[in-house]
Each structure stands twice: as C-alpha cells, then as structure tokens.
C-alpha cells in the first residue's frame, strides 16, 4: 500500500526546508501541489523532477477519493505540498488526509514551516495558550465569528490577505476594543 506525505514548504525563504523533505520529494511517485507554478520554484532550486499535479481548494472535493484509490491500489507514495507552510493548515489537504485515514492509507506529516508559529513567538503576546482561527469568513458570518471571539482571553491568531489587512485590523479594533493588545506580524 502507498503512503501520503504532508511536506511543509518554506514560508518566504526557500532555504527553510528540511533535508528530509527534499529527499522525500525526490523519491515519491507524485507531488500534489496547491499551485504547480509556485511550487516549480522550490522544486527547481533543489533539482526535484518528480511529476506534479494540482491539488487545491477548487478541486480537492472532486479528486480526493480517486487520489486515495491511486495511493492504495497502485502502491504510490505521494507528497502533498502547499504554496507555503504545512498542508491542511489554512491550505488544501484536510479532505485528502481524512479520506486516506478512512481508507487505511498511512499518512505521515513532516515537521516544518507553519507561518503562525514564528509570528506568534515574535508578537510578544502570550504564547503559552492560544487559539488559531486561520482566515475569517470574507463576508457571511464574519461579524458573527468576531462577536463570538470577543470574550476569548487567550491570544488569537488570524491569517489575512495583505489586501484586507487594514480592513480587518479596523474591524478587530471595533469588536475587541482599543485596549486589547494586538500585533500584526508578517
């Protein structure tokens, strides 16, 4: 039976990848990439010529079951990478992992880059207890979610697009109040 590897990719600096990740990417039968054009930069840097296919939020609902069949029946070893960071953390991957586990396919996740960990550590906000929220809904449910989180005492981590940062910071100040400590970390 094949295996699915979740391979964290660098957040920003292409040299922030582990040797083990490079070795696995060179040895698997297939790499599933969130955006093959973006991933090509990383693969070219490390002379990785493994075949690649797209696996992103727009196709993962349709392709996860057939990918699991290929991994299980053809005994393929497959690596899943996102554009930056760890697959399934605010990136595609959860559905494929869930389908693999349901079908008895082994899943291994390598340690590595996750954007929120360095951001949290550098924020000077308490990091002993925190809540990871990822991306807020863009429209429907956004205000409801913020109001729900208003009373949360732990450090809350949000991801946001650079194009919406100012709008989101303004909304956070309105909901959480001007006295609550905050940090915007890139």
Give the topology, please.
Elements: E1 3-6, H1 19-27, E2 30-33, H2 36-45, E3 52-54, H3 60-73, E4 77-81, H4 94-102, E5 106-109, H5 116-122, E6 130-135, H6 142-149, E7 155-159, H7 165-176
Parallel strand pairs: 1-4, 1-5, 2-3, 2-4, 6-7
What does this structure look like?
The protein has 186 residues and is α/β, with parallel strands linked by helices. Helix content is 37%, strand content 17%. It has 7 helices and 7 strands. A 5-stranded parallel beta sheet has the order 3-2-4-1-5, sandwiched between helices. Strands 6-7 form a two-stranded parallel ribbon. Helix 3 packs across helix 4. The longest helix has 14 residues. The radius of gyration is 18 Å and the shape is elongated. The relative contact order is 0.16.
Helix content: 25-40%
Q: Beta-strand level of the residues, as a percent range?
A: 15-25%
Structural class: alpha/beta
The general outline is: elongated
- The low-pLDDT segments are none
Number of H/I helices? 7
Order of helices and strands: EHEHEHEHEHEHEH
Number of strands: 7
Q: Mean pLDDT, nearest integer?
A: 93
């Amino acid at each position: 039976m094949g295996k699915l590897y979740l391979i964290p990719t660098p957040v920003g600096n292409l040299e922030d990848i582990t040797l083990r990740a490079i070795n696995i990417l060179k040895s698997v039968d297939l790499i599933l990439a969130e955006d093959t054009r973006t991933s090509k930069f990383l693969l070219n840097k490390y002379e990785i010529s493994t075949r690649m296919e797209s696996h992103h939020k727009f196709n993962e609902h349709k392709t996860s079951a057939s990918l699991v069949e290929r991994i299980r029946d053809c005994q393929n070893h497959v690596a899943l990478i996102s554009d930056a960071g760890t697959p399934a953390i605010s990136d595609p991957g959860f559905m494929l992992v869930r389908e693999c586990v349901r079908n008895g396919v082994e899943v291994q996740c390598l340690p590595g880059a996750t954007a929120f960990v360095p951001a949290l550590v550098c924020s000077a906000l308490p990091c002993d207890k925190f809540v990871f929220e990822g991306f807020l809904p863009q429209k429907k449910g956004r205000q409801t979610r913020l109001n729900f989180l208003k009373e949360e005492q732990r450090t809350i981590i949000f991801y946001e697009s650079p194009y919406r940062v100012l709008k989101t910071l303004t909304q956070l100040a309105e909901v959480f109040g001007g006295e609550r400590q905050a940090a915007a970390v890139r």
